[in-house]
Design goal:
Blueprint: E1 5-8, E2 21-30, E3 35-43, E4 49-57, H1 62-80, E5 85-89, H2 92-99, H3 110-123, E6 126-130, H4 136-147, E7 152-155, H5 163-171
Parallel strand pairs: 1-6, 2-5, 5-6
Antiparallel strand pairs: 2-3, 3-4, 4-7
Helix pairs in contact: 1-3, 2-3
């Protein structure tokens, strides 16, 4: 089931199937402030928090922050030795580059995209594209990455700014 590409066309977050986890990722780029950040979170089939992460990168494109969010999520899955993880992103471009179209050497993110594709295959994860409404919690985490002092943080508990969104996702 690795590198399978599908679309989540509903407009809200859906829990993964029993026995699976879901990683939602997002990137954030504020051009005027020259800030780029990313974040994500992993939840179980009941919407329960496993962990989250947020980080920032030197200013780059919004696509770069989306790809970094996916990459760091895959790295976290690998380090935690998690299995049966579906990854959701609301970036159709990042989704296509990693799962469908591939990338040539001239792309500025080619190395990172190839690492993401390799991780997907090795970890036997699959990726889906979702709408923004289905990715609100990851959006909060990505924006949090731009406000924190550290370059990268793993959150063992949900940040207070996220609690309402987590509750709303489970109730949807």
């Amino acid at each position: 089931m690795a590198l399978q590409s599908t679309n989540n066309i509903v407009g809200y977050w859906e829990p993964p199937n029993p026995g699976w986890l879901k990683l939602n990722t997002d990137g954030s780029s504020i051009t005027k402030m020259e800030k780029a950040s990313y974040g994500g979170l992993i939840r179980n089939a009941h919407g329960g928090w496993i962990c989250g992460y947020a980080g920032k990168i030197r200013y780059d494109t919004s696509l770069a922050s989306e790809i970094w969010g996916i990459f760091e999520g895959l790295e976290l899955i690998r380090k935690m030795r998690l299995r049966n993880v579906v990854i959701e992103t609301d970036s159709s471009e990042a989704f296509s580059l990693i799962t469908v179209n591939g990338v040539d050497d001239s792309h500025p993110q080619s190395s990172l995209i190839r690492k993401c594709t390799k991780h997907l295959l090795e970890l036997k994860c699959y990726m889906v594209h979702t709408r923004r409404n289905g990715n609100r919690c990851a959006d909060v985490m990505a924006k949090l990455g731009g406000t924190q002092l550290e370059e990268f943080l793993v959150y063992k508990e949900p940040p207070p700014t996220l609690v309402w969104f987590l509750f709303d996702d489970v109730m949807a």
